[in-house]
Amino acid sequence: MGQTVSAQGSANQAMVDKYRNNFLREVEANVEEGDWVKMCMQCGVCSGSCPLGNAWEHPPQELFMMIRAGQREEVLRSESMWMCTSCYNCIVRCPRGLPITHIMHGLANYANRLGLAPKMSPTRRFAKIFWDNISTTGRVNETKLSIRLYFMDGFVKGLKTAFAMRKVGLGMLLTRRLNPFALFAPGGIKNKRQLQQILKRAYEIEDQRKGFQ
Amino acid sequence: MMTEMVASNETILVIGGGISGMTAALEAAECGKEVILIEKNPSLGGRISQLYKYFPKLCRPSCGQEINLRRIKANRRLRVITMAEIVKLSGSAGDYAATIHIHPRYVNENCTACGACADAVVSEIRDPHNYGMSPVKAAYLPNNMAYPQRYVLDPSIIGTEEAENARAACPVDAIDLDQKAQTIHIRCGAVIFATGWRPYDASRIEPYGYDRYPDVVTSAELERMMDPFGPTGGKLVRPSNGEDARNIAFIQCAGSRDRNHLPHCSRICCMASLKQSTYLSEQFGEDADASATIYYIDIRTIDRFEDFEQKVRQDRKVRFVKSKVASIAQDPESGKPVCRGVDTHGYDRYENVHDLVVLAVGMEPGLDLGSILDTGHGVALDTGGFIELDDANDGVFGAGCATNPLDVNRSVQSATAAALRAIQVVNRVSAS
Amino acid sequence: MPAESKTATYICRGCTLGERLDTDHLVQVAQSECGSHLAKSHDYLCGRHGVELIQNDIDNEGVTHVVIGACSRRSKTEAFGFGTVAVARANLREGVIWSQPDLAETREATQEMADDYVRMACAEIKFMQQPAVNRERGANRRILVVGGGVSGISAALGAARAGYEVLLVEKTDALGGWASTFHRKLPDREPYARFRENGMDDLINQVETSTHITVFLNATLSRTSGAPGQFSVDIATRGGTASTENVGAIIQATGFSRYDARQLPELGYGKSADVVDQAQLEEMARKSNGRGLVRPSDGGAVESVVFVQCAGQRSDKPGHLSYCSGYCCNVSIKQAMYFKDQNPQTDTNIVYTDLRAPGNGEDFYRAAQLKGVAFTNGSVDQVTVDGDRLAIQFRDEILDREEVIHADLVVLATGQVPNSGIDISAEPAGEAGSVHGGQARVPVDSILNLDYRQGPDIPHLKHGFSDSHFICFPYETQRTGIYACGPVRRPMDIAQSVEDATGAAMKAIQAVEGAASGRAAHPRSGDLSYPSFRREGCTQCKRCTVECPFGAIDEDENRYPVFNESRCRRCGTCMGACPVRVISFENYSVDSVGQQIKAIAIPDEFEDKSRILILACENDAYPAMDMAAQNRFEYNAFVRVIPIRCLGSVNQIWVTDALNAGFDGVMLMGCKKGEDYQCHFVRGSELAHERMGKIADTLSQLQLETERVEVHEVEITDIHRVPQLINDYAATVDGIGPNPFRGF
Question: Model's pTM, two decimal places?
Answer without folding.
Answer: 0.95
